[in-house]
Amino acid sequence: MRFSVRFRFCFATLCVVLWARPAAALENSVVVESKTVVAGADSVWVAVFVNNSVPIYELDLPLELRSVTAGAFTRSKIIIGDAPAGRVHNSPLSDDSSNCWFPPWSNPFLAFWGAPNTVDNCSGPVSESYGGDASTNAPFVSPDAVLLTADGHYCGPLGAGQDPPSSDSASCYLVFDVTNIPGQFEIDTCCAWGHLSFGGGIVPSFTKGVITIRCDCSCHADPDCNGVTDIVDVIQTIDRAFRGAETIDDPSCAAHGASVDGRTDVNCSGATDLVDVVLMIRVAVRGEDPASVFCNACGQSMGVATPAPRATALL
C-alpha cells in the first residue's frame, strides 16, 4: 500500500475513533471561585459555578464564610444572587412567578439568612448574627453564612449543562467589601434549613473558595507615588517630619497604620523623622538600593512590618 493511501486510511480511522468516543460526562458540582484581592477592596465579586448532569428543579446553596487569618474577612453585608448572564438566571429555575413562558425569567433567587438546623455534616458553627433579613442584617463577623435557594417545580428545571469557566458567566455570585487585614478567609458550605442539594437526592460535589487579601504598599517610600524615589519624595518627607504635613496613607496599606507613619516612614519606626529624611536622600540623591535602605511595610504575611537595616552611618 502506497504511503499516501496508508496516510488517508489512518486519518479516516482516527476520525471515526474520535467521532465515536463519548463526550466527557457532566458532573454535579458547585465550585466557589478563589481569588486574591487588595486589602480594603470594595465590591469584591466572587463567582459560584453550577454544573449539573441532569435537569434539576431545586437548588439549595448554603455558604459559610470563615476567617483563616484573624481579622481578614468581609467588612460589609454580603450580597448573594444569581448572575443575569448565568445559566441559572436564564432558566425557569429562578422564576417564582407565573411568568414562565417568556425568558429571560423575571425574578432572581430569594436571598436570605436562615437559622441553622443542625451542626451535623457542617464545617462548623455560625455566629449569632446568622439569621434575619438580608437588607437589615448587620455586617458579618466570622464565621457567618448565607443561603441561596430556588424552586423550579412550578415553572421548570435548569437543563443539564455546565457554567462557562469565565466568572462573568457564572450562575451565582457573592459581593462584599474586605478588611484591611492581609490574610485569608474561606467560603465553605454548611447547613441552613438543609444542606447543599440539587433536590431529588442529588448532592453535588463542592469546592470551597479561598479569598486572599494581600497587602499593597507599593507607594511606600514613594510619597509622590510615581514609581521612583526622587527629590519630590524627599521634600514631602521633610514636610511630614518638620512641618507637620498630613500623613500620606494608602487604604491597602492601612493594616500597618498603627506602626508605620504612612509612605514617608521609610524605616517603619512609627514616626517620620530625621532618619527617614536621611534615608530618602541616600536613595533619591546617592542612588542606593531601596531594598537595602527602606523597610518592608507589608512585612510578613501576618502584617508585621519588617524594619529597615540598621543605619550605622546615615550620611
Explain what you see.
The structure is a single chain. This protein is of the alpha+beta class. The chain has helices at 3-20, 231-242, 274-284, 290-293, and strands spanning 29-32, 35-38, 44-52, 58-67, 79-82, 110-112, 144-151, 161-162, 172-176, 183-189, 205-207, 209-214. The strands form two sheets. Strands 1, 3, 5, 8, 9 and 11 form a six-stranded mixed beta sheet that branches. Strands 2-12-10-4-7-6 form a six-stranded mixed beta sheet, with no helix packed on it. Helix 2 packs antiparallel against helix 3 (274-284). The model is unreliable at 110-121, 127-134 and 300-304 (pLDDT under 50).
How many helices does DSSP assign? 4
- In which range does the helix fraction lie? 10-25%
**How far apart are the first and last residues' alpha carbons, in Å?**
86 Å
Largest sheet: 6 strands, mixed
Count the beta strands: 12
Question: What's the order of the H and E elements?
Answer: HEEEEEEEEEEEEHHH
Mean pLDDT: 77
In short:
With 315 residues, the protein is of the alpha+beta class. It has helices at residues 3-20, 231-242, 274-284, 290-293; strands at 29-32, 35-38, 44-52, 58-67, 79-82, 110-112, 144-151, 161-162, 172-176, 183-189, 205-207, 209-214.
Strand and helix layout:
Elements (H helix, E strand, L loop, with lengths): L2 H18 L8 E4 L2 E4 L5 E9 L5 E10 L11 E4 L27 E3 L31 E8 L9 E2 L9 E5 L6 E7 L15 E3 L1 E6 L16 H12 L31 H11 L5 H4 L22
Parallel strand pairs: 1-11, 2-12
Antiparallel strand pairs: 1-3, 3-8, 3-9, 4-7, 4-10, 5-9, 6-7, 10-12
